[in-house]
């Protein structure tokens, strides 16, 4: 799905949206007197809403070239990844002002050979590439080839730190896993008479570094702070609802003493289905990731206890800003691009 940048917004467009004259917009931009506060507010809201920066647009035009970025994203119904793509779609005015075009490329990120082939096909084609990456030698080599070919590469959500990628955009996944472990351990205590039992983990793939790091962090906390809880071997559902449902349903039938559940990635609908069909959704502590339409519903129903959240809009914007800074040879504002971890429960749903 190619998303070409449309014609850049002009001052006249901002004036039209704010319901004022072109001269009024000019006065607001240059902080000239004679404009009512309410009018100033409307103009500034229109500018902010459209991420309109006339000086940036002029500077990009002066550079004399457009840039092409590609986002290599997982194929399949991953709601969090769809949110990232949706936020990128809302950035058309911002992209246009900087003469940027963004193309989405869907591939199987769980298959190293498929992902590596998808990346290799992009060599010499794009100025910048953001990729949700599998930590695998073949993928690492493909990323290095992209860099060697002159592209700026950032890993998104899941990192490949041993590659030559330029930057990682995402949360600290070990800290996210530790947070999930603390939540499961502490919530199991008051819910279980013996504060003991087994804990299940469902991941997409341990080959995805974000999933592997989350599991590592989770197990650290379990082993050091909740020794009475026994963590079962990880189930790999490839972030697929059907596969996750089947694997967890069998595990729940086999272990009636499961008291906690950590869903590391997607496949949330399948995980929730298995839990509800077992009739133990109110007994088992369920912690997962990301605030989506589905996890919001599960939190409200009391099926899910907490979601470890990262802001998909921030990740989309940060990835583009980092790629642009790299392409221009400008410094990356690390503090601005740092992705925060949030804990969301039913009572503080945004």
Architecture overview:
The structure is a single chain. By secondary structure, the protein is an alpha/beta fold. The chain folds into 3 domains: 2-52, Orthogonal Bundle (434 Repressor (Amino-terminal Domain)); 62-171 and 311-348, Response regulator (Rossmann fold); 173-309, 3-Layer(aba) Sandwich (Rossmann fold). The protein is 48% helix and 17% strand. The chain contains 15 helices and 13 strands. The chain has helices at 11-18, 22-29, 37-49, 54-63, 79-89, 92-97, 112-120, 137-148, 173-191, 209-225, 241-254, 268-277, 293-301, 312-328, 334-337, and strands at 2-3, 67-74, 100-107, 128-131, 152-156, 167-169, 197-203, 229-231, 235-236, 258-263, 285-289, 306-309, 342-344. The strands form 2 sheets. Strands 7, 8, 9, 10, 11, 12 and 13 form a 7-stranded mixed sheet that branches. It starts with a strand and ends in a 6-residue tail after the last strand. The model is unreliable at 1-6 (pLDDT under 50).
What is the level-2 CATH architecture name of the largest domain? 3-Layer(aba) Sandwich
Say what the CATH topology of the largest domain is.
Rossmann fold
> CATH homologous superfamily name of the largest domain?
Response regulator
Fraction of residues in helices? 40-55%
Beta-strand proportion: 15-25%
Number of strands: 13
């Amino acid at each position: 799905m190619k998303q070409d940048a449309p014609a850049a917004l002009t001052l006249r467009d901002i004036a039209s949206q704010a319901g004022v004259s072109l001269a009024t917009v000019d006065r607001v931009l240059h902080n000239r007197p004679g404009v009512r506060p309410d009018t100033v507010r409307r103009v500034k809201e229109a500018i902010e809403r459209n991420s309109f920066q006339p000086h940036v647009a002029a500077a990009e035009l002066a550079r004399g070239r457009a840039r092409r970025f590609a986002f290599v994203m997982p194929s399949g119904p991953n709601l969090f990844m769809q949110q990232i793509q949706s936020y990128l779609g809302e950035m058309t005015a911002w992209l246009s002002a900087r003469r940027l075009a963004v193309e989405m490329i869907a591939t199987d990120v769980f298959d190293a050979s498929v992902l590596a082939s998808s990346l290799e096909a992009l060599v010499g084609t794009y100025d910048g590439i953001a990729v949700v990456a599998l930590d695998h030698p073949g993928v690492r080599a493909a990323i290095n080839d992209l860099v060697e070919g002159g592209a700026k590469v950032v890993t998104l959500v899941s990192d490949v730190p041993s590659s030559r990628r330029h930057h990682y955009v995402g949360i600290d996944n070990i800290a996210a896993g530790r947070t999930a472990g603390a939540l499961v351990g502490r919530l199991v205590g008051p819910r279980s008479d013996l504060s003991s039992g087994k804990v299940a983990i469902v991941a997409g793939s341990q080959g995805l570094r974000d999933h592997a790091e989350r599991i590592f962090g989770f197990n650290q906390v379990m082993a050091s702070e909740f020794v009475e809880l026994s963590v079962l071997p990880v189930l790999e559902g490839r972030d697929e609802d059907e596969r996750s449902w089947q694997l967890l349903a069998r595990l729940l039938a086999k272990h009636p003493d499961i008291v906690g559940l950590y869903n590391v990635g997607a496949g949330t609908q399948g995980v929730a289905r298995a839990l509800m069909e077992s009739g133990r959704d109110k007994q088992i502590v369920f912690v997962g990731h990301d605030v989506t339409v589905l996890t919001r519903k599960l939190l409200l129903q009391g099926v899910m206890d907490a979601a470890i959240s990262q802001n998909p809009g921030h990740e989309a914007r940060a990835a583009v800003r980092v790629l642009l800074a790299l392409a221009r040879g400008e410094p990356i504002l690390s503090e601005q691009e740092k992705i925060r971890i949030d804990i969301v429960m039913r009572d503080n749903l945004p």
